[in-house]
Amino acid sequence: MFYFVIVLFFIFSMFSAISCKKQEQCDIAVLLEEYDGVHMHSLNLEKIRECGTKKTDELIRYADDPDENKRWAATMSLGAIAHKSGARDDILVALKRRLDDKDESIRATAAELLLSVNDNAGIEVLIDLLESKKQLHPSEPPAMISVNSLQVLKEYTKQKKQTKKEWQEWWTSQNEK
Q1: Assigned domain for 20 exists
Q2: Spatial contact of 108 and 145, defined as CB atoms under 8 Å apart
Q3: Longest CA–CA separation in the chain, Å
Q4: Phi, psi dihedral angles at 50 (to 5 degrees)
Q5: CA 57 to CA 69: how far, in whole Å?
Q6: What 3-state class would DSSP assign to 120?
Q7: How many CA atoms lie within 13 A of 8 on its CB side?
Q8: Is pLDDT above 80 for 177?
Q9: Where are the alpha helices (DSSP H) in the chain?
């Protein structure tokens, strides 16, 4: 009986250690702090996806952070979770709030992520960004927001429009249907 208790204690200790290790890996604050604001690979989306939907509320709070790097990282993370676990309403609402972000890169990222989960809410934002003169950040290799927006629109809509006016006319016609 004594050995049985020792074995149970040992097994419980192992599971506790594994559980603690998994919780450490799912510390969203730490994972977002690792993102350096320049290199996309410094945001460990794999670990964040492993955390799953249990960290969604925390990521949504970070998506409203005053720091643009944290907002971008949280936005990307929400998109990663949406792709792994499904586009839940709370994630979609959080991504849609980023469509009004003051940072053009965050707006472009949120719009693309929404389109990637079959939500057209980002189309109008991408059309507006077709005249942006700013560089998308982070972007490896460097890309202009306008060029990226055009590529995303073409990819997800299968349209071959080139100018902002053409896209606006097309989008207006789609909304009239």
Answers
A1: no
A2: yes
A3: 80
A4: -65, -30
A5: 18
A6: helix
A7: 5
A8: no
A9: 2-25, 28-33, 45-51, 56-62, 68-85, 89-97, 104-116, 123-128, 145-157, 164-176
Length of the chain counted residue by residue: 177
pLDDT of 9 > 60? The answer is no
On the 0-12 / 13-18 / 19+ scale of CB atoms within 10 A, 86 is exposed
User: Would residue 71 count as lying in a domain?
Assistant: yes
> pLDDT per residue over 104-141, tens digit each?
999 999 999 999 999 999 999 999 999 999 999 888 88
Is 88 strand, coil or helix?
coil
Structural domain tally of the chain? 1
In angstroms, the Cα distances linking 158 to 117, 124, 125, 126, 161 are 15, 16, 17, 14, 9
Instruction: Taking the CA atoms of 71, 65, 30 and 78 in sequence, report the sign of the dihedral they define.
Output: negative
Q: What is the pTM of this model?
A: 0.82
Q: 13-17, 63-67, 168-172: which has the minimum mean pLDDT? A: 13-17
Structure confidence by residue, pLDDT tens digits, 40-82: 889 999 999 888 788 899 999 999 999 999 999 999 999 999 8
Structural domain that includes position 118? 28-176
What angle, rounded to 10 degrees, do the helices at 145-157 and 104-116 form? Answer: 10
Give the residue from 158, 51, 64 showing the smallest Cα distance to 106: 64
